[in-house]
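INTERNAL AUDIT FORM
Audit reference: QA-55
Scope: verify that the stored structure record matches its stored sequence.
Auditor: D.O.
Record contents follow.
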Amino acid sequence: MTIDNIKSAMPNYAKDIKLNISSLANDETLNEQQLWGTFLASALASRNEFIIAQISTEAAQHLSTEAMEAAKAAAAIMGMNNVYYRFVHMTSNKEYQTMQAKLRMNIIGNPGVDKMDFELWSLAVSAINACGMCIDAHESQLLQHGISKDQVQTAVRIAAVIHAASAILDGEVAMGQAPVAQAA
């Protein structure tokens, strides 16, 4: 199981991350598509090759081809949007808030899966990328359409844990301490 590979790659000091990965992989707050789409979008947003490879292999066992593509699309579009809207939100010149973004975002309107699943994945990626404006927008859409706060929290917990695991493994590699599973 690929989740086990990630857990095996975690150094001893990251025991809490390992335990959180296990509990989240078995969480029942989200349906299977929401859960594994969130894992995949979060892995892509976190940018660690080993984590991406392991999660994408696992996600492929739980997601349709359309859901796999939509989760990847959520990571892609939010990678762009989070930078742009974080700038709009953070700049002291509020004139940018009145300007059209002039960026193509067609996938948001037609993601190929349930719109709220795509919103959930977009929220997770936005949390990783620290875009408050996007977090607020996606969370509002989710709550308006019946997604519970527990489901929102679970998606963000997945994002937090996968991002932490990615950072840990990147750090280990940078220190010349490549985890056994990653070095293989």
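Auditor finding: record pair retrieved intact. The radius of gyration is 17 Å.
Action required: none
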